[in-house]
Input
Amino acid sequence: MAKKEVVTDYWVRDLLKEADIELEPQGSTIVEIDNALKSASKNGTGNVGFPEFVGVVKDFLLVIENKADLSKHSKINDKGLISLDQKDVKDYAINGALFYGQHLAKNTSYKKVLAFGISGNPKKHKISPIYIDETEYYRELPDVESFISFTDKNIEEYYTREVLKEETNQEKETAGILQDAASLHEDLRNYGSLKDVDKPLIVSGILLALRESESRNFSIADLTGDTIKTDGQKIYDAIESNLKRAGVSPEVKKDKILSQFALIKDTQILNEINSKLNKTPLKHYTEFLNEKIYKSIKYTRSSEDYLGRFYGEFMSYSGGDGQALGIVLTPKHITDLFCELVNITSSDIVLDPCCGTGGFLVAAMHHMLEQTEDENSRKSIKQKQLHGFELQPYMFTIATTNMILRGDGKSNLLNDDFLKQNPNKLQLKQATVGMINPPYSQGSKQNPDLYEIAFTEHLLDSLAVGGRCAVIVPQSSVTGKTKEEEAIKANILKKHTLEGVVTLNKDTFYGVGVMPCIAIFTAGEPHSKDKECKFINFKDDGYKVSAHIGLIETEQAKDKKQHLLDVWFDRIESESKFCVETHVEADDEWLHSFYYFNDEIPTDAEFEKTIGDYLSFEFSMIMQNRGYLFGFEQDGGEDVGNA
Output
């Protein structure tokens, strides 16, 4: 038993090390904690007692108690509370953690204590946090898989969400963004009579013009409603100047973008003074965007796709025009997850052949820039290492605008049809990372090239040998629901390697009705029959639907993502209900649900409960004269058991 405890101690130490949290084993060098532990014996003798680990993160005191056996995780008394009886405190992880936590809250100046009861091993375990304050009041919190939520960076957010049950600044910001989007959408409709497809162009065009205010070539005060040089002409001229300043080239690309923005100067109603506003609608929109959006984009270093969020809001209000085109914008937490699953580096070259508003490229740029401080490297990332295609002209314009607003004026975006590109020619770009969210539900037997899995194959064929590729597609794409799709899957395995598939939360694309998954490949290396792929069930990702907002992050999201990445990169083992590693065939359904089998051995308690339930059911049926269900003979209307 002692050996098992040591194994658990080492595992917990590794979890702390991975989260970059420094707790001390069996005592503390902090004087007041050390003094308090001198009277913390679990035997109740008033002598010294040590939890497995103890330490401080910011103004929170963390204390950990471990047990090797899962059955020794927790003991509840007859009142439904964590038992603090002396024997239970010694024998059970949560009980011991609560004891130490309350003792330290009472005998130190630390009044916010997080105690952890941990039991089991890396593959099968429970990590249960408890919040304790100076009154010795405690609150049991949801189980976690790692300590990522308790780092310097995250612990205050965790406290706000899980203990105080309040919105974080990020959640308030998200709610504000959505509220602003709704307000602007209404104003675009009411004062501009604009088509849905034109609304995001107005937004992105004005944002480009606002960039010129930094060079003093544009001022909101100059938007006076003049009928000779209209507000729209002034904004259009500022857009043209900013495209030149950003170095957008070649000329044909700049001209394509400008042609999309022509509606700003050519739409009469936008340039006339509105009696209700006492200004032109364009000036009203410019003032709104400057205050609500431009400042956010300008000063943020987040991978958040602000314009994409706005575009998604416009589409949701317009009854799904984007969905009719197969457009499903990728949420920020998924674009970030792509970067982490392919382990993106500052030296990678990224290709997104269906870039939409540029969400994947924004996320990739953000993650790549974070990894280097070298100015030449940062310049190269922005100007040479981000490539994208977008077929829809207005989406292409928004994507280009988005990249310019992020400081990347020369990104290699093309307004063209990716499927018509020669993959051998695209390979010359030597893209090492491919990311794609292809158009959905456009393929058919008549047009097999438009299946999502066909886009995937074309992207894989376009990457450098050894390139990493992540795609987000409907689950039906990897099951091979048609013969054509099954043939494409077989062809992919002949040329490329499937690394694994992650099944996602059904609400990832909330309101769209798509059941998505992420498939990860290595390009240009044929799939070996000995290759073991990972199939992961990530439906419980820590995101939930909130009324009037949509999909939001809960505090569990960071922890659950960390667990996913730890399993994906073989840092920890996992139960088969989360991850199955197996060989694959082209005609398999490439999903966790296809390969999963329950390999867990029931505990004695679970076995006894199952037997008890069965015997109770059997007795109930016999008493109802239904013993024949169990092979008992009936005689004169009564069941007679076989001797």
Q: What stands out?
A: The chain has 24 helices and 19 strands.
